[in-house]
Amino acid sequence: MTAAVVAVVFPDGSLAMRVREELAGVFADEPFAEAFGARGPAGLSPGVLALVTVLQFAENLTDRQAAEAVRERLSWKYALGLELTDTGFDFTVLARFRARLVEHGMERLVFDRLLEHCRGKGLVGAGGKQRTDSTHVISAVRDLNRLELAGESVRAVLEALAGAAPSWLAGRFGAERVAEWELRYAARVDSWRLPSSKTKRDRLAEVYGQDAFVLLRAVREPDAPAWLREVEPVELLRRIFVQTYHVICDARGREVVRKREADSDGVPPGQLRLASPYDADARWSAKGDELFWCGYKVHLTETCDNDTDGAGGTDSTAPAAAGAPNLITDVATTASTAPDVTATAAIQHRLAERQVKPGEHYLDSGYPSADLVTDAARDGITMITPLLGDHSRQAREAEDFDKAAFRIDWNTRQVTCPEGSTSTGWYPVQQHGRDAIVIAFAGGDCRPCPSRERCTAAVRGNRMLTLRPREVHEHVTAARAEQKSDTWQAKYALRAGVEGTINQALDVTGIRRARYRGLPKVTLQHAFSATAINIIRLDAHWASRQPHRTRRSWTSRLSRLVYQLAA
Fold it and tell me: First-to-last CA distance in the chain?
């Protein structure tokens, strides 16, 4: 009955209907078997819940709206194989389903299965062109300053202990102390105005610190239940206390809690500093002088074989079928403080594992390094990306002698300077965990040299060079020379198309704002967002192949006026 009604109501089909007809095998139950027990009462189909989640992200719906769509929409009932009278399920089922996927490490399962299906259909393959870019993701927690963070962290612990160990909390501190805390921490710290006076704010910070110190000491006493130390808010309070306060002894030998000052006492680096007691993975980060956010970063990689290239044509050697849509082949969620360059190798490794390794990988200047470009070329991937130039003092001055002015003889391990002097030292070393070569010139040659001021300003008077190993040095030198050409610049223009994919993911799925807390759940969100974008693009591809019913075309009033004037 559902199929008969839908055929009449949607004669041209819909996205949900075409997903069922084209991708039924992707949303099977078997891949989820490890996350769902074989015993107990029958539950909802995990394949159905996965499809509901994808459709939910394709329309940027909340859990309540998605559950209502299952009950109300004919096309969704058809896609899910439900009867017209099916009442669906409670919206909380979707949250429990996501939690189970995260618990069993299945955040990317649906995305990977869809990618495998597309690879089998020839819509994506290895050896083509792909491009990658990242964007910031705002966390699902409130922005707190240091004072608010200290108070809210204590409040989070008290709420957790009041729910998990109320008898211990009341017995350990007494009714009077608990009532005092209730007055101070019943409401969120950011829900009321903080004191405007610096003296009062400092006093409030001391009170928060003293309360935190008392709680942390109490849960670590020998007679306290051991499991209290494993409660997540307690551990987060400990870390936030360390980064916000330090304990000193006064003249009487008493322990005093004092707030840390960034200038005198120091604070943890950004990648370690907690920003919320409710999300242990969110971090504050900055990009440039204008963008500051607390959250994460997401990297999207997509195919671009059928895009118009920089020369104005299309690639006739693309491994995917002609006319295939650009599909997202990898999605990676990282901490906001992680530089883009740290994600490059992992992205290429996952692409190779899924047999969609690109022949050309287009990236911006934040992703490459000399070693990454060399290693990728060794693996058959050409990274089309601008390598940063030499930023030494000599390179900034046009008339000075930078590294390019020296002639290197790798066989004899000697370097000749522009004035004809040869190096006297060739020392293989390790710098920052990487192989390097330090080249030294004799002070007797450098000090009387007429070009010394253009070469070095070292106090000891002789020039020193640091080179990378031969393969890396030659590869980087050739790449930097090539990227100055107009042909390379026109080719690199293909990378800009990934910005449109990021905008589509933002507009359709809200990818730039985290729905959930914690890196694993945000990773799941981004995997489903990328799956939804792929399904939307596949639907446009499928719809373009199907004949449509003839409809009466609408003509604008302005066009009709032009036709009348022409007559």
Answer: 52
Q: Return the H-helix or E-strand segment holding 4.
A: helix 2-9
Token code pair at residue 357 = 């390794």
Nearest to 542 by CA among 129, 130, 121, 77: 121
Beta strands in 218-345 (DSSP E): 245-249, 255-259, 283-287, 291-303, 328-335
Reference 360, options 297, 299, 313, 315; nearest CA is 315
Contact 47, 32 (CB under 8 A): yes
Question: Which tokens in the block code for residue 249?
Answer: 């002894």
Residue 149: φ, ψ to 5°: -65, -40
Q: Which helix (H) or strand (E) holds 361?
A: strand 360-362
3-state secondary structure of 1: coil
* pLDDT at site 376: 93
Residue with tokens 């996965």: 50
Token code pair at residue 567: 């007559």
Sign of the alpha-carbon torsion through 502, 507, 513, 517: negative
Give the span between the Cα atoms of 107 and 112, in whole angstroms.
Answer: 10
pTM for the full model?
A: 0.87
Tell me the sheet residues that pair with 187: none
pLDDT digits (tens, 9 = 90+) for 477-511: 888 888 889 999 999 999 999 999 999 999 999 99
The conformation of residue 191, written as its DSSP 8-state character, comes to: G
